[in-house]
Design brief:
By secondary structure, the protein is of the alpha+beta class. It has two domains: 51 residues, lambda repressor-like DNA-binding domains (434 Repressor (Amino-terminal Domain)); 83 residues, SH3 type barrels (Roll), CATH 2.30.30. It contains six helices and five strands, in the order αααααβββαββ. Strands 4-3-2-1-5 form a five-stranded antiparallel sheet. β2 and β3 form a beta hairpin. α2 crosses α4. The longest helix has 12 residues. The chain is elongated and about 50 Å long. The two termini are 22 Å apart. 22% of the residues are buried.
């Protein structure tokens, strides 16, 4: 899945919209929305921007990096289970490795994009499970992450 595809799917699900509802509101066909969410590489940019404008965004150049929306789609709710319910290994760009669990995403208030993750280390996981203590939660900036995988 491409970053644009996972981004659109993330925001559509966050707003509890079906693909059909998104297509109708954006003025595009359901097939276009399906192809977009599946990561089709050849799509009309004007139609992509029609869809993105519903979420307050448009296509623009971006540096290639770890896809925050792909992580988010894989870590909670009914389809997002991969990283949230399983222990992860996060490698940071400074080569520090962290083992633990992602418990939530952090959305930047200004640009409404995922900017980081609430993370509980393996050492604190049992204590956090018993009592949701924010002192056991670490904030990891998404821009500091180089790689994530299941433990």
């Amino acid at each position: 899945m491409t970053k644009a595809a996972s981004f659109i799917k993330f925001y559509r699900k966050k707003l509890n919209m079906t693909q059909k509802e998104l297509a109708h509101k954006a003025g595009v066909g359901i097939r276009f929305v399906r192809e977009m969410e599946q990561g089709k590489e050849t799509l009309r940019l004007d139609k992509v921007n029609q869809v993105l404008s519903l979420f307050g965004f448009r296509m623009s150049p971006a540096k290639i990096e770890l896809d925050a929306y792909e992580i988010a789609l894989n870590f909670k709710n009914d389809i997002r289970l991969k990283y949230f319910t399983r222990a992860v290994k996060i490698t940071l760009k400074n080569k520090i490795i962290k083992y633990g669990f992602i418990i939530d995403e952090i959305i930047d208030a200004n640009n409404k994009e995922i900017s980081g993750w609430k993370f509980v280390s393996n050492n604190n996981a049992m204590s956090y499970q018993k009592k949701k203590n924010d002192q056991l939660v670490e904030i990891i900036s998404h821009s500091d992450m180089q790689y994530i995988e299941e433990q």
